[in-house]
């Protein structure tokens, strides 16, 4: 059995800019990571940093520009959409917006049954019903919800339906693309706990995408931080909170709201200023140099490479050894 369930090597995805023959959007640029079987990698960064493009390229909604995607030991990078069909039941996605991702004209039963039908899992409608009702029960809904429409549910309930649809095929890998961002804070923990419960019961492997570091700690074994298409730091989850090395990671952590006003004031001093630059023409050298409080002349000229600074903690920064907060 392969211990690494999902691996991407030097994954790159560029999108053409409409009306231009030469310009491209550098959505994902040379990203590499591994997710062990049954574990969770949290992928974090501001909007526009490339994390969702990375997820959609891994699941082959987008074709990669270059690099490799390896799912449970099988290289799926160049498989055709037809060849991917049987593999799709092994890798599923939970989407960010439970309002937009569920078809308003379908009942909950039909929504959850769709993947069962696509993969011809059940021989009879009765068999499908049994699986659907069991799954509704497992996500905290009931048989009575099956004939209702998505618009009749709250955001948290809709995300439970999205989880039921993604997990009914017992996939090996689930890509959770900001699954809690659109939900009330009070509901976020419930959805996270539900995902964790499924992981324990089924040994699922998660790639969990989020735009801030606050909730990721509770779901992730490792956390990767992306900035403008690049992975800039990757390490064990507690390590990234206790010893963040990259100035961008430090800025993201400083942006997490904290209830103590004195501590909050101290943290604001190191939060990130300015907007993320255009991914069509990313800055030279280190892409973060236009916003980095510690940038030196070298940073705009030479791109830092990802280096292991010990214990599997990897960071791409010329000054990483001096960047402790
Ligand atoms: Fe900042 Fe330079 Fe490190 Fe980039 S390489 S994060 S600009 S110090």
Automatic annotation (TrEMBL):
Transmembrane segments annotated in the record for this chain: none
GO terms for MF: ATP binding; ATP hydrolysis activity
Annotated SUPFAM superfamilies: P-loop containing nucleoside triphosphate hydrolases
ATP-binding in keyword set: yes
Keywords of this entry: ATP-binding, Nucleotide-binding, Transport
Superkingdom of origin: Bacteria
Protein's name according to its UniProt entry: ATP-binding cassette domain-containing protein
Naturally occurring in which organism (per UniProt): Candidatus Anaerotruncus excrementipullorum
